[in-house]
């Protein structure tokens, strides 16, 4: 299995603190030593960093721990391989372009039989069931909406339906973004926390780091963080239930089912 | 205008030395301070690093100067913006998936009227003429070959034809890879050098660095480097002429026109 980390915020925010916690699980406090990756949206563009080695030993991960890349949407993943060998093309997050937008996706779980599902518009580059599911979802969206639908809710409902269909094949804890909103689906484990004024302090579960968020924020900031397991020990994380599907925009929940 | 750097090699090779020369041109020895990017192929996967700031001031570029990522195909670009504002989505190289392969592309030059050309299968994310040309080329390939053609030469000839068509709109110095081979088209300036045994020493044009390639290679290595202008002062670079189109595979030239 793997671990996921995501963020949706209303101002470009760095994720150094949460990422520092996550990467400890890539070989130190967790067994996820088979690669890691992180994508940061900046406007319509994305920056992506990936390594098919353990995050706790990665020089690039070490740089990112202290290099504050500010973004409103982030998706990150550390991998414990089960389907698909350890290599760069099997390392999450995966990205594709649809409608002139970057779509980014990461998945935790296994999906039995997904490779029989046809993906006419997007082909997997690697061999994971995760990337196949992503290509299927995007192919379905492109098939149904050759151009973006006028109402964004129409799209959110359709993505919800697709995520439910995929989850019938197994475990589908998923994070996805179309560069505008952040989608997440829970099968077994996903938690989230919205931080806003008054900001307090927090301590990481996975190492000794603490942070005082009030030193790094203004009173209008809303920063929502998603993870497969709580990253801090002294805050209350919301637990998602099996089948929950949420959409966040600029840190705020805008759709749930 | 911009500067390009590319590599095709028969063994995974790092490009630290050439990259160290290139990034000096991003603000120090050259005026290309409007962003930089580099893509490394590792098998079917790619690692991409981008920054919409000047490469000579970039922390990530500094890391890559000394962090030997080994690859058989590399494409890099430093930008002096002319069309499209300075932002991440306008930063080269650009990538798209076709046939389950990562295609990577970077361009130097301007193309007048390219935005009127239809790109049915791939849409630009940013606003550069360069990315539009890339989406047009890939759309044409997908339209002509919904599946990869059996003969690779058929594909190379078709890419050659498309590159010639695009170059009629202006200046089209271009580097492209489909993860298998390295394509390059010259309008005004492109040079290349194939290094093989016996390996010698070389000195960068743009800073004081020298290297003894024999310390870093075995006698079977073939490493071909492409750039908009020679990166070393004591080697003989081959100059491409207007309209030249070359394909390299594992460091060796396999097609020319």
Assembly classification: homodimer
What is the CATH H-level superfamily of chain A?
Answer: Aminohydrolase, N-terminal nucleophile (Ntn) domain
Under the CATH scheme, the architecture of chain A is 4-Layer Sandwich
Beta-strand content bin of chain A: 25-35%
Taken in chain order, the helices and strands of chain A follow as: EHEEHEEEHHEEEEEEEEE
Q: How is the CATH topology of chain A named?
A: Glutamine Phosphoribosylpyrophosphate, subunit 1, domain 1
* Average pLDDT figure of chain A: 93
Gyration radius from CA atoms of chain A, angstroms = 17 Å
Number of helices of chain A: 4
Q: Report on the biggest sheet of chain A.
A: 7 strands, antiparallel
Residue share in helix of chain A = 10-25%
CATH class of chain A: Alpha Beta
- How many independent structural domains of chain A? 1
The structural class of chain A is: alpha+beta
